[in-house]
């Protein structure tokens, strides 16, 4: 599937993408964006699910369950706090619009 | 491999491709205030798609499927509740916590692969190990960072020879990893030792780091978790994990550098030198702090032309942002020009203070960052410092002996008058005295930011 040089290409292109996406961000969005990128690596959830799905021993199941538990926490928690933070920027903008 | 299996796999891979695309679009949208909320929705859609398709086609036995669902429900449910409840002021440590969980999950994937001993090649094994190592460090390190910001760990724990101990942990972890790769076998005790050492390293690395440097450290661990996820993505042949993990790794590294730069600290400095170690004594300031009553301070504010408010962590902990904005609205009604000056690292994270002011409803155009506002302090009648300390310490400009020498600061000392709202006479987060507090034009209004702002509101109303 994904191997050798192809994997390195994906890695390189994704790294440049990450750098470009962030490079022109205003300071006010640093914390929400850190939280947003924290949410995005919550995709580890699908990996943890696959690891647990293919588990064939008790040890693997225990570790797998831990992994899925932690990953789900990362994904859901990351989403909730990011959305909460970003929504405040919207409401602040709206309030300003109304007061004018 | 039959046709049905093939198409399920193709479908899964395609959904990962779409998810990866949605993540990138989402992050891009999150980087502008206007589209930011839609950004997290885009990324969320990608996450949902990838999760549902994985759930449908991962081919688990009934028992495993049940375990997956249960673990998702409990982990996701707890995170949902905690994420909804947490106060905005406590956001940084929640990010640390969720980030640590992601690192732990990446380490768990590595552990499943390693204990199973099913790696196809040495490269495969090595990548699983590196991802597991980074994930473990990020997991335990983030938990320590959470504990520190939450106030569970109150002191930076330091002792002689600490760096040697950390180095020993690092060498031992790498040695255990090398043994696993060289042996090409599962070797459960070695694998366990490897993970325990990596976890210990994360703890040992983070314990000596002071609270002021925590945002940089959390951001670093965020980038590391991204990398760990990418490495485990290679192990699992999962393109979504590789792309999302690498994007976060790169973006997080850049963000970490931006933060470190804003504090005039290099990353190496944050990680390997203990803050305040050298200059604790030489930062001493002579002079006395002069107190002021809320009534007098209120009158001073009400009859000013221009007031620049400098909010800091003290405002955040006291949850005083609403009261402060109420006070400022009152002043604006009095015809006072009010501006907010935000230091890049005010609060506990870059942008944290902006989030809090946005929560209170302060319009963007009243908020300025360091470069914009510093020239304006000359023209301000009053600089109102609310729970900020190190970011307005003029020693950073003038005193080469000071541990924070060279850090860009807000030039509050250039204002005609300075009013400092502060809980007591203590020192700032870095543990050094503040030369601003003993200047001739500075008056101290002691009290917690919430009640002090309340008193000032009354005083301004009374003034006219």
| Secondary structural class of chain A | mainly alpha
Q: What kind of sheet is the major sheet of chain B? A: 6 strands, parallel
Largest sheet: spatial strand order of chain B: 3-2-1-4-5-6
Helix content of chain B: 55-70%
Number of helices of chain A: 4
Query: Could you give the count of β-strands of chain B?
Result: 6
Distance between the termini of chain A: 57 Å
Q: Note the overall shape of chain A.
A: flat
What count of helical segments of chain B does DSSP give?
Answer: 17
The percent of residues in helical segments of chain A reads over 70%
| Strand/helix succession of chain B | HHHHHHHHHHHEHHEHEHEHEEH
Number of structurally distinct domains of chain B: 2
Mean pLDDT level of chain B: 86
Question: What is the rounded Rg of chain A?
Answer: 19 Å
Structural class by SSE content of chain B: alpha/beta
Give an overview of the whole structure.
The complex is a heterodimer of chains A (100) and B (464). Chain A has 100 residues and is mainly alpha-helical. Chain A is 83% helix and 0% strand. Chain A starts with a helix and ends with a helix. Chain B has 464 residues and is α/β, with parallel strands linked by helices. Helix content of chain B is 61%, strand content 7%. Chain B contains 17 helices and 6 strands. Chain B has a 6-stranded parallel β-sheet. In chain B, helix 11 packs across helix 17. Chain B is elongated and about 80 Å long. Chains A and B meet through helix 1, helix 2, helix 3 and helix 4 of A and helix 1, helix 2, helix 3, helix 4 and helix 8 of B.
């Amino acid at each position: 599937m994904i191997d050798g040089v192809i994997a390195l290409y994906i890695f390189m292109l994704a790294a440049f993408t990450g750098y470009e996406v962030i490079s022109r961000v205003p300071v006010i969005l640093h914390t929400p964006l850190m939280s947003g990128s924290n949410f995005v690596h919550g995709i580890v959830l699908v990996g943890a699910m696959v690891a647990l799905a293919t588990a064939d021993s008790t040890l693997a199941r225990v570790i797998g369950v831990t992994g899925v538990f932690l990953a789900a926490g990362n994904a859901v928690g990351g989403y909730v706090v990011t959305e909460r933070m970003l929504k405040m920027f919207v409401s602040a903008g709206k309030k300003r619009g109304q007061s004018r | 491999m039959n046709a049905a299996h093939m198409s399920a796999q193709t479908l899964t891979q395609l959904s990962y491709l779409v998810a990866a695309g949605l993540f990138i679009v989402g992050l891009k949208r999150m980087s502008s205030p206007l589209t930011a909320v839609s950004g997290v929705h885009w990324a969320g859609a990608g996450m949902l798609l990838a999760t549902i398709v994985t759930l449908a086609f991962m081919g688990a036995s009934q028992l495993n499927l049940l375990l997956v669902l249960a673990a998702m429900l409990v982990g996701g449910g707890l995170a949902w509740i905690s994420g909804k409840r947490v106060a905005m002021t406590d956001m940084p440590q929640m990010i640390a916590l969720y980030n640590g969980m992601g690192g732990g999950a990446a380490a768990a994937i590595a552990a499943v692969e390693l204990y199973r001993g099913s790696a196809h090649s040495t490269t495969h094994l090595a990548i699983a190990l590196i991802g597991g190592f980074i994930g473990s460090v990020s997991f335990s390190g983030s938990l320590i960072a959470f504990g520190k910001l939450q106030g569970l760990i109150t002191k930076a724990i330091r002792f002689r020879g600490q760096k040697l101990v950390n180095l020993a942990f690092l060498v031992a972890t790498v040695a255990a990893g090398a043994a696993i790769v060289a042996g090409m076998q599962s070797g459960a005790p070695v694998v366990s030792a490897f993970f325990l050492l990596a976890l210990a390293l994360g703890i040992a690395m983070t314990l000596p780091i002071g609270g002021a440097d925590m945002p940089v450290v959390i951001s670093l661990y965020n980038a590391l978790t991204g990398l760990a996820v990418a490495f485990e993505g290679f192990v699992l042949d999962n393109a979504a994990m590789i792309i999302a993990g690498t994007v976060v790794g790169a973006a997080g590294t850049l963000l970490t550098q931006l933060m470190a730069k804003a504090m005039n600290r290099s990353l190496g400095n944050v990680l390997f030198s203990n803050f305040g170690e050298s200059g604790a004594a030489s930062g001493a300031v002579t002079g006395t702090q002069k107190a002021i009553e809320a009534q007098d301070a209120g009158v001073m504010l009400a009859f000013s032309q221009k007031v620049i408010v400098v909010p800091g962590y003290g405002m955040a902990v006291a949850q005083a942002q609403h009261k402060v904005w109420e006070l400022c609205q009152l002043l604006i009604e009095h015809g006072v020009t009010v501006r907010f000056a935000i230091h890049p690292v005010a609060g506990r994270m870059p942008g944290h203070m902006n989030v809090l002011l946005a929560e209170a409803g302060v319009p963007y155009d009243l908020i300025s960052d360091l470069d914009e506002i510093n020239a304006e302090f000359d023209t301000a009648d009053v600089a109102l410092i609310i729970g900020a300390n190190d970011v307005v310490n003029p020693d950073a400009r003038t005193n080469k002996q000071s541990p924070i020498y060279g850090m860009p600061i807000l030039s509050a000392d250039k204002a005609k008058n300075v009013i400092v709202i502060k809980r007591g006479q203590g020192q700032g987060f870095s543990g050094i005295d503040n030369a601003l507090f003993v200047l001739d034009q500075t008056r101290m209004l002691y009290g917690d930011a919430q009640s002090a702002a309340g008193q000032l509101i009354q005083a301004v109303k009374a003034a006219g």
